[in-house]
Design goal:
The protein has 10 helices and 13 strands. By secondary structure, it is an alpha/beta fold. The two termini are 34 Å apart.
């Protein structure tokens, strides 16, 4: 009887703490248990998992390709479980955090939409929790990356931070006073789909002129390939590098050539940076943060990209010259930021789950003491009666 009651209460307690984790996040990392947790970063091409300690240090990291059969949500979930169980063989894991490239609902249970995976309203947290013996936290990968940079990286000490992740597209996240701002429906921070050029380039989201069509890895590669395909004289160096195979032109190659002094690649990065600065100025007008952190693969270009972004930001900032300017910094944690942030956010879930279990145990102990107090006088009376 007591075993059944214990298990039933444990299940309801776990559900309660997972529902309330978002409302009690502010500053709660200061008292979270200093236990190792697993963070997982899920993208369209790779799944990276790592055990992270309370100081953001990666104790061990494993990585695998996103399954080719990702049209089935279960295949990706199988991969996640395999990585967690592999790490659990060597580490005492207390919780698992997932950073997913997609829209996650406000309860951080369902992935509403993932552009590179088949998740459509997928109850990822519940599915994984039913297979793993620890609490699971699910969030958007830009949110987890921003949390990591605020806790351990370029945004440390900032009260109002906006992170922009430049990869294939543009992702983003907002932190205010130690709390991730996810919006009413959980999908805040999709800055890449702000319209900056009405009637501009078509975006995969279905609209035209989205910011990520002008300042992202895709935009950078598209411009370079168009020049190369047109056999432009400014593109001779990159054409020679890929031996005429235009489809082999990639973002990292453009960055490499720009560092080597290739004029076209430098100019392309400047163009991307200028569009980045325009978007940041718009976000400053709306959100007024103290710091913008620029992450994602394209940020590897560093000052070749961020220098032009700072210049354009100052030129387009509303009220320029009469207001403080937000700091613009490159992210420090690199491609592991999403994984580290997911693990650290999972520690908050671990704390609340541990606290709920401790309260349950305390209630059970009080019940046992009360029951013992009732039994003791009765035992004494029975002993006297036998005499």
């Amino acid at each position: 009887m007591s075993t059944y009651r214990d298990l039933a209460h444990r299940g309801s307690a776990r559900a309660t703490v997972l529902r309330t984790v978002g409302t009690r996040e502010r500053r709660s990392h200061l008292t979270a248990p200093r236990v190792p947790t697993v963070g997982i970063d899920i993208g369209g091409t790779k799944v990276m998992a790592g055990v992270v300690d309370a100081d953001g240090k990666i104790l061990e990291k494993v990585r695998t390709e996103t399954p080719d059969k990702s049209k089935s949500p279960k295949v990706v979930e199988d991969t996640i479980c395999e990585l967690v169980l592999d790490l659990s063989d060597r580490h005492d894991v207390h919780a698992v955090g997932i950073g997913a490239a997609g829209w996650v609902d406000a309860d951080r249970n369902r992935v509403l939409f993932a552009p590179h995976l088949s998740w459509r309203n997928e109850p990822l947290r519940d599915s994984l929790q039913s297979r793993l013996a620890v609490p699971v936290m699910v969030d958007n990968d830009a949110n987890t990356a921003a949390w990591a940079e605020w806790r351990f990286g370029a945004g440390a000490g900032e009260d109002h931070l906006v992170m922009i992740t430049l990869g294939t597209g543009i992702g983003g996240a907002i932190l205010e006073d130690g709390q991730v701002k996810r919006g009413q429906f959980g999908v805040a921070g999709e800055f890449g789909h702000m319209q900056v050029v009405p009637g501009g380039h078509r975006c995969p989201c279905g609209n035209r002129g989205c910011w990520e069509q002008y300042s992202s890895g895709n935009a950078l590669v598209r411009e370079a390939r168009e020049l190369a395909a047109a056999d432009s004289p400014v593109a001779y160096n990159i054409i020679d590098r890929v031996q005429g195979n235009v489809s082999d032109i990639t973002g990292p190659l453009i960055t490499e050539l720009a560092r080597d002094g290739d004029a076209m690649c430098i100019e392309l990065l400047q163009d991307i940076g200028q569009w980045l600065g325009v978007g940041i100025a718009n976000l400053a007008a709306a959100l007024d943060p103290s710091c913008f952190v620029i992450g994602g693969g394209v940020s590897a270009a560093d000052d070749l990209l961020i220098g032009p972004a700072r210049d354009a930001f100052r030129r387009h900032l509303t009220g320029r010259g009469y207001r403080p300017e937000a700091r613009i910094a490159r992210a420090q944690l690199g491609p592991e930021a999403g994984m580290v942030g997911a693990a650290d956010l999972a520690r908050l879930v671990a704390r609340r789950f541990r606290r709920a279990n401790r309260r349950r145990l305390e209630r059970y102990e009080r019940y046992e003491r009360y029951a013992q107090a009732i039994r003791t006088p009765r035992t004494a009376r029975d002993t006297q009666g036998n005499k």
